[in-house]
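TOKENISED FOLD:
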Amino acid sequence: MAVPERKMGVAEFLAGAAEEGALLLDVRSPGEYAEAHIPGALSFPLFSDAERAEVGTLYKQVGREEAVEKGLEIIGPRMAETVRRAKALFGAEPDRRPIHMYCWRGGMRSGSMGWLLRTAGLPVVLLEGGYKAYKQTLPEFMGRPWPLVRIGGYTGSAKTAVLHALAERGEQVVDLEGLARHFGSAFGNLERHAQPSSEHFRNLLAEALGQLDAGRRIWVENESRRIGQVHLPEPFYQRMIDCPAMEMLRSVDDRVEHLVDMYGAFDIDLLRHGFEAIRAELGGQETEEALGALDREDLAKAARIALDYYDRTYEHGLRKRAGDRRHPVECAGLSLDACADRLVNHAEELSF
């Protein structure tokens, strides 16, 4: 006996999918899923990319009826296997929550897959309006008055490490560079980790923010509009620059030590590539001096040369943001935990 059809709006659908034990399935094509999806969703495509293109072309050039027939022709032979895969993912426990499922617009693909699984006795909840409806909720969500406090400071100030120290002491944090899989400089992704698309980064950011208490301060690292190849959502970026920044003041020695600790385990060739990437801005002579220092395994010397360039870049950014609400916090010579404590104390003194 088929299970009755159920549909939910975005907020209710996400809340239900977030419950422990829920199974969230994205039935769009693998290419659509790879570009961006609701965080936590598994790819469970009705069509391959090529099949989707074929059906879509028929729909546009011939008509709906012919497209539907082609879709049935494609999925008919594999319906039983699709049900078996869904049951394997769903599990055997009788108290499992419904399968939450979506396609692009909440139309034929999720409707067809939902019908198939419900006919097989599996409880399915469809997202009203599909991924498109979810996507349309995010600009407003990103621009909410989040109580952000930025951590600023010159390159090598250990901002990300201090952010993690803040999290360990119970502060709310969002690690933007962690979500973007990039440290935000020519040396930020030397191992060439695949970054998410800007759209999926926004989805991940929305998920992270949705897990926080909007009534308490949220720490983020001060960032430009772009982290590697990922762009911050503009409404969230505007909110960031309107919020106060705690400017960590670290000594050059502190910063060099942190960079050596951070990059000391990297292959020298990767570090050479990082310097080559900024050769035009750093200057030919300085680049050759840095490369020579790497050859001698003098990472501290190479780090100091890099800081000369990044300090100029940072100071240029400061001049462009002359109206920023920046509050200097002396952190020279302090441990990461001590830096975190000092930042919190300053934020509380200033009622942030």
